[in-house]
Amino acid sequence: MCDDKDCCKDQPVGLVRINEPAPEFEAVTTHGVLKLSDFKGKWVVLFSHPADFTPVCTTEFMAFANHQEEFDKRGVQLIGLSIDSVHSHIAWVRSIESLFGVKVKFPVIADLDMKVANAFGLIHPKASTTSAVRAVFVMDPDQLVKAIIYYPLTTGRSIPEIIRLIDALQINAAKKVATPEGWKPGDKVIVPPPATTQAAEERMKATDMEVVDWYFSKKSI
Predict the structure, then answer these.
(1) Which domain holds residue 185?
(2) What pLDDT does 179 receive?
């Protein structure tokens, strides 16, 4: 904790960390009052956007909605969030369906009091004091935070990359392996390096994986 009262005054209120429990919340959404714990046992993607009825956010919402089946196949619950009212959210998702023919099926949190935004550290004063930044939080079925991505207000997200990230996180958890840069399903995974000199010697003799060196080995799964 910082001892200087002024040194951290511009930092987000919440500090969400990898492999720690996500902040619990209960909030009004476009699907009624929901709690994060309602989705325990599922993977969750909570994503924030700066404001309703804005062009970049509209493209993102359409992309999330258009990939709904891909998230469903992976057992992922999408949850949107901004500090707009529930009536604004309802009007916006209806507008998206009317203007673009895209139906938004996931709930969107109304956060006028900024409680959820502050819990997740989404208000960055240097970016905006009145809007949540673009952020993505991926949570596992135990509601531990497994990945966090931030974007500036001006830059839209890539939904296929978020899906790729989920695929990697799910294989990491299921197979206890790591995934290299750009990994996608079907690619070889990285086998964790051995932790003893004897295991390192044995790794060099392994025939069931591609061994470049004792610390760098890949295999197909």
Answers:
(1) 176-221
(2) 98
- Look at residue 148 and tell me if it is in a domain: yes
Q: Are 125 and 77 within one domain?
A: yes
Please tell me the predicted confidence (pLDDT) of residue 8.
40
**Order of all β-strands in the sheet with 189-191:** 189-191, 216-219, 210-213
Are 209 and 152 contained in the same domain?
no
Catalytic residue list:
57
Residue 186 lies in a domain: yes
Distance of CA 140 to the CA centre of its chain: 10
Output the domain CATH number for residue 85. Answer: 3.40.30.10
Q: What is the DSSP letter of 39?
A: G
The parts of the chain modelled with pLDDT lower than 50 are: 1-12
Chain segment 112-151, per-residue pLDDT in tens: 999 999 999 998 877 776 678 899 999 999 999 999 999 9
Among 116, 122, 165, which residue's Cα sits nearest to residue 140? 165
What's 54's DSSP letter? Answer: -
CA distances 191 to 18, 81, 100, 199, Å, are 21, 37, 45, 13
Q: How far apart are CA 136 and CA 147, in angstroms?
A: 8
**Cα 139 to Cα 166: distance, rounded to the nearest angstrom:** 10
In which element (H, E) is residue 64 found? helix 55-66
